[in-house]
Every structure is written in structure tokens, then in C-alpha cells.
Design a protein that fits this description.
alpha+beta; 5-stranded mixed beta sheet; Aminopeptidase; about 100 residues
């Protein structure tokens, strides 16, 4: 099974489609993007595609594209946060809030 992930900016989401099912969206990840940051908000995989790597393909592709674009990542989606925890090679993309300096 081959999964193709594409960015659909007008819908503010990445979509995954699986070979043999070209018309059906197997999964998607919603996001908000600024010039410096992409926040992943929600990820869904259709029940018939769960456990087949669709979610991982969504995360890996979107994070690779974020890295290439020089964007920081805010993983508010629990699936993204857990995936990055299991793949520390992507941890450097995570947005770090600046600490406030107290007077």
C-alpha cells in the first residue's frame, strides 16, 4: 500500500490518499500556518485505513515540508505530539516559547 500526502493550502490541511482509492481521503491533518510557524491542530484517519501507516505518513511528510520551509512546529494535536516524542530526530522543529524576563 502506497500513501501519497499532499498539502491542500486552501483547506489548511494535509491529505493522505492511498493507491487503489484515489478519490477517497484516507486521512488528513488540519493546520494553521504563519510565515514562521505551523500549528498542527487535528488529525483523522478513516477507520478502514487505521493501522496502515497513514497517520505516520501525514506527520512525516508535513514535518519534512515544515523543515524545508524553515518553519517551527506547534504540535497541539496529540497524535503529532506523541509521534514526535517517538521520533526525536524531529524534536528540533518544535516551537519553544520565549521565556519572559522579570524585572
Amino acid at each position: 500500500m502506497t500513501t501519497k500526502v499532499i498539502d491542500v493550502p486552501e483547506a489548511r490541511r494535509y491529505e493522505a490518499r492511498v493507491d487503489g482509492w484515489p478519490e477517497e481521503v484516507a486521512g488528513f491533518s488540519q493546520y494553521l500556518r504563519t510565515s514562521e510557524l505551523i500549528a498542527f491542530l487535528h488529525t483523522e484517519v478513516a477507520p478502514e485505513f487505521e493501522g496502515r501507516g497513514v497517520g505516520s505518513a501525514l506527520v512525516r511528510t508535513s514535518l519534512d515540508e515544515a523543515r524545508a520551509a524553515g518553519l517551527r512546529v506547534l504540535a497541539t494535536c496529540p497524535f503529532y505530539a506523541a509521534w514526535i516524542d517517538r521520533h526525536p530526530e524531529y524534536a528540533d522543529l518544535l516551537y519553544q516559547a520565549r521565556s519572559k524576563v522579570s524585572d
